[in-house]
Design a protein that fits this description.
Two copies of one chain form a homodimer. Chain A is of the alpha+beta class. Helix content of chain A is 51%, strand content 7%. Chain A has two domains: 80 residues, Glutaredoxin (3-Layer(aba) Sandwich), CATH 3.40.30; 114 residues, Up-down Bundle (Glutathione S-transferase Yfyf (Class Pi), Chain A, domain 2), CATH 1.20.1050. Chain A starts with a strand and ends in an 11-residue tail after the last helix. The interface between A and B is large, with 47 and 47 residues.
């Protein structure tokens, strides 16, 4: 696959996910930044490309626009099978997807920028209340995730075996994001160990916010 | 597949999703109810089965526990290929997954029972503020979803072509859920049309909350 263009924001954790996946697959891509705090993702031009007005989006060489980070990661895994981001056995695939969605459906949607802004502007939440909200939903799910990882023999150096996959990608992006709200990680040793294993790989490290062209 | 046991709550919209998928695949299942308003999903016995303490979970005949509705639906689609819940072409699959995640990652996580309870108990939101919160996140994403469906020739009687799939399952469960908060649907004619097409099928209708053994 060539001629890929990624619409991204350096700090967006769903953008981090997709950058890691592209790096793991060895795919080069052009980078278009949209500054979320300036609402650039709500411009008419970008809404024509992605009606949800969210990053990331990946534009293929033929102009096809793919949205929603996990849908794009599944697509990349189908089109570029090596290295696999999901195991080969259906039960293992179900496990990795469940770990993935634990983060992608139970933590991230509650804690992204537009939700935190809404809490402040509409519900009158203070900075402290907003930070407590962020930490609450992380801790709620990370407690269960820690158990799911620590109690299962299929967990290896990474969430499932000894190679990184889709669940590790979401875990990495979430733990990076947590740092902005000082989430205490000592109760989550397995998650922390896997995060460190991810961080040691250049495909992950190079996808981090501070390595992007639009980093502040 | 036989000997399946579904852990469910009649009103849970992720449970609705999984019941529809099981019905579409023609799979019979035993039904174990967990009353979310009584916190039965937080019992020690259920937490041993699913550390997240969420419904649904599907237990296979060999005792394997599958969690997270979308992970289970993908598993069912891999194990029982007919009728397919995802298209055969990778770009079509990416589209259906993006439509699915628009609902599953941008609406439902913000609007489930535990989040609405937290808004009231921790942030002091009133019933009216909580209902407005629910409607806000539905309308925000349904506006984009309506555009994504109405502007794409791949939309047919259902979200993608003329047979129901994973995106329709999530759309159906979400629209059912909306009724409890009086979401005005006139701005979403394509979504409404697809909801009606789903409702006309027994596999969907029989998965609705009021048809479950634990319905109140």
């Amino acid at each position: 696959m060539s001629g890929l263009v990624l619409h991204s924001y350096f700090r967006s954790s769903t953008s981090v996910r997709l950058r890691v996946a592209l790096n793991l697959k060895g795919l080069a891509y052009g980078y278009v930044a949209h500054h979320l705090r300036k609402n650039e993702q709500r411009s008419a031009a970008y809404l024509a490309l992605n009606p949800q007005g969210l990053v990331p989006a990946l534009v293929l060489e033929d102009g096809t626009v793919l949205t929603q980070s996990l849908a794009v990661i599944e697509y990349l895994d189908e089109m570029v099978p090596e290295p696999p981001l999901l195991p080969r056995d259906p039960t293992g695939r179900a496990r990795v997807r469940a770990l993935t969605y634990a983060i992608a459906c139970e933590i991230h949607p509650l804690n992204n920028l537009r939700v935190l802004s809404h809490l402040k502007s509409v519900l009158g939440a203070s900075e402290d209340m907003t930070a407590a909200w962020f930490r609450h939903w992380v801790v709620e799910t990370f407690g269960a995730l820690e158990t799911m990882l620590a109690s299962d023999a299929r967990t290896g150096c990474f969430c499932h075996g000894d190679a990184p996959g889709m669940a590790d990608i979401c875990l990495y992006a979430q733990v990076l994001n947590n740092r902005r709200f000082d989430v205490e990680m000592s109760a989550f040793p397995t998650i922390s160990r896997i995060f460190e294993a991810c961080s040691a790989l250049p495909e992950f490290a190079e996808a981090a916010p501070d390595r992007q062209p639009d980093a502040e």
